[in-house]
């Protein structure tokens, strides 16, 4: 079984003048630069080279922990495809980073007994890059495209007939001598992964016959993942130690694995033969990860709104200036988990801390008659 992730060396005709980026390059490039400049965080769900996830990834559906409905549905679709001796329909995994989209894509290929080829939306700059990938596929192979929402529009146009009719439509030459060439492709399965389904175009989204949304994991599921990871990397793990790590993993296996490795380091240096709750608590506290997974940046954000702006509402531009962070980093890296946990509410007038945030910070709540809490109550009543 192939596990190639780079571009194929086999040549393919390139469409002339294909643009290299999606949409207006200025705005997108600036946003990407802002996100790259955001501080590295232990509790970030984005993949890192040093995570070493490959060593602890499950290899089969029955080994995969969590996502019960997604696993059950995939099992049916995979078994049906094998029984028909046919390619699996195209699959789209949707969900926040770190929940197992890449792992499930690899498992799909392994369960089907076919080759797995991997790339990502930003890497496929031109139509010829995608053509090279597609023409190297064998019958029923799986092609995985991560961050598929970042595909170049010109490349996306090539995908439509490839997904629907298993054909490549390419333009050879330029001007009056240009001609259209159709290349037949083997029946293959495209597996796409995206963290931002809303950025997918409707024609592309509608061509995926199997859309699967992944959910955040429960603490109980993360405990099992931590225990399995501990066995794989060869460290003893008590039940309460696994629970302590799981509670701080923000519902995300990738973060759980990263915290496990860092706690393992503290246990090894301390001469402990297994990770206990006390060791995990001490290690994660020293790493500035609190009891529910908030890190220093999260608490800095919350305390700044609480102490400098009376709990809000305060605009995101003001927050970005106060924290010396780009707006995109605030909205896409810091705020999602805080909003999910009920610490922050977005209102028309800006960000507003909830009473839950003040309790977690150990700060007194503003007086009940304060203007911002009148706004909070009004909105809560409207939602009710």
Automatic annotation (TrEMBL):
Disordered: region residues: 1-53
Domain AAA+ ATPase: 87-218
Compositionally biased spans, kind Basic and acidic residues: 29-40
EC category: hydrolase
Keywords of this entry: ATP-binding, Cytoplasm, DNA damage, DNA recombination, DNA repair, DNA-binding, Helicase, Hydrolase, Nucleotide-binding
Spans annotated as Head domain (RuvB-H): 291-384
GO biological process, one term: DNA recombination
Sites where the protein binds Mg(2+): 102
UniProt-listed InterPro entries: AAA+_ATPase, AAA_lid_4, DNA_helicase_Holl-junc_RuvB, P-loop_NTPase, RuvB-like_N, RuvB_wg_C, WH-like_DNA-bd_sf, WH_DNA-bd_sf
GO molecular function: ATP binding; ATP hydrolysis activity; four-way junction DNA binding; four-way junction helicase activity
Catalysis: reaction(s): ATP + H2O = ADP + phosphate + H(+)
Gene Ontology CC terms, in alphabetical order: cytoplasm; Holliday junction resolvase complex
Gene3D superfamilies, per the entry: 1.10.8.60, P-loop containing nucleotide triphosphate hydrolases, Winged helix-like DNA-binding domain superfamily/Winged helix DNA-binding domain
Main location: cytoplasm
Highest taxon in the source lineage: Bacteria
EC number: 3.6.4.-
Subcellular location: Cytoplasm
Residues noted as binding ATP in the record, renumbered to the chain: 56-57, 98, 101-103, 164-166, 207, 217, 254
Subunit composition and interactions: Homohexamer. Forms an RuvA(8)-RuvB(12)-Holliday junction (HJ) complex. HJ DNA is sandwiched between 2 RuvA tetramers; dsDNA enters through RuvA and exits via RuvB. An RuvB hexamer assembles on each DNA strand where it exits the tetramer. Each RuvB hexamer is contacted by two RuvA subunits (via domain III) on 2 adjacent RuvB subunits; this complex drives branch migration. In the full resolvosome a probable DNA-RuvA(4)-RuvB(12)-RuvC(2) complex forms which resolves the HJ.
Record's function text: The RuvA-RuvB-RuvC complex processes Holliday junction (HJ) DNA during genetic recombination and DNA repair, while the RuvA-RuvB complex plays an important role in the rescue of blocked DNA replication forks via replication fork reversal (RFR). RuvA specifically binds to HJ cruciform DNA, conferring on it an open structure. The RuvB hexamer acts as an ATP-dependent pump, pulling dsDNA into and through the RuvAB complex. RuvB forms 2 homohexamers on either side of HJ DNA bound by 1 or 2 RuvA tetramers; 4 subunits per hexamer contact DNA at a time.
Domain notes: Has 3 domains, the large (RuvB-L) and small ATPase (RuvB-S) domains and the C-terminal head (RuvB-H) domain. The head domain binds DNA, while the ATPase domains jointly bind ATP, ADP or are empty depending on the state of the subunit in the translocation cycle. During a single DNA translocation step the structure of each domain remains the same, but their relative positions change.
Family under the similarity heading: Belongs to the RuvB family.
Stated name of the protein: Holliday junction branch migration complex subunit RuvB
């Amino acid at each position: 079984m192939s596990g190639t992730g780079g571009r194929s060396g086999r040549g393919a005709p390139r469409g002339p003048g294909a643009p290299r980026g999606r949409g207006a390059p200025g705005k997108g490039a600036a946003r990407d630069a802002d996100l790259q400049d955001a501080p590295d965080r232990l509790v970030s769900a984005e993949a890192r080279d040093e995570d070493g996830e490959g060593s602890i990834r499950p290899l089969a559906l029955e080994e995969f922990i969590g996502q019960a409905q997604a696993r059950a549905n995939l099992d049916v679709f995979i078994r049906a495809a094998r029984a028909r001796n046919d390619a699996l329909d195209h699959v789209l995994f949707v969900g926040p980073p770190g929940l197992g989209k890449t792992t499930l894509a690899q498992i799909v290929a392994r369960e089907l007994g076919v080759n797995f080829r991997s790339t990502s939306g930003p890497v496929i700059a031109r139509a010829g890059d995608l053509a090279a990938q597609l023409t190297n596929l064998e019958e029923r192979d799986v092609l995985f495209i991560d961050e598929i929402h970042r595909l170049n529009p010109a490349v996306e146009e090539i995908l439509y007939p490839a997904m629907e009719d298993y054909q490549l439509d390419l333009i050879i030459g330029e001007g009056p001598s240009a001609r259209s060439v159709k290349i037949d492709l083997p029946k293959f399965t495209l597996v796409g992964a995206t963290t931002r389904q809303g950025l997918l175009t409707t024609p592309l989204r509608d061509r995926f016959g199997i859309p699967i949304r992944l959910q955040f994991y429960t603490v109980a599921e993360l405990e099992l993942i931590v225990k399995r990871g501990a066995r794989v990397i060869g460290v003893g793990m008590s039940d309460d130690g696994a629970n302590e790590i799981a509670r701080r993993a923000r519902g995300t296996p990738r973060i759980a694995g990263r915290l496990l490795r860092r706690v393992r380091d503290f246990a090894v240096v301390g001469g402990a033969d297994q990770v206990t709750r006390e060791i995990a608590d001490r290690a994660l506290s020293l790493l500035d990860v609190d009891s529910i997974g908030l890190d220093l940046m999260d608490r800095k954000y919350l305390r700044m709104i609480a102490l400098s702006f009376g709990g809000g509402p305060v605009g995101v531009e003001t927050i970005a200036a106060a924290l010396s962070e780009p707006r995109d980093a605030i909205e896409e890296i810091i705020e999602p988990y805080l909003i999910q946990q009920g610490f922050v509410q977005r209102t028309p007038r800006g960000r507003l801390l909830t009473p839950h945030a003040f309790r977690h910070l150990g700060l007194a709540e503003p007086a009940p008659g304060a203007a911002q809490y009148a706004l909070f109550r009004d909105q809560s009543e409207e939602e009710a």
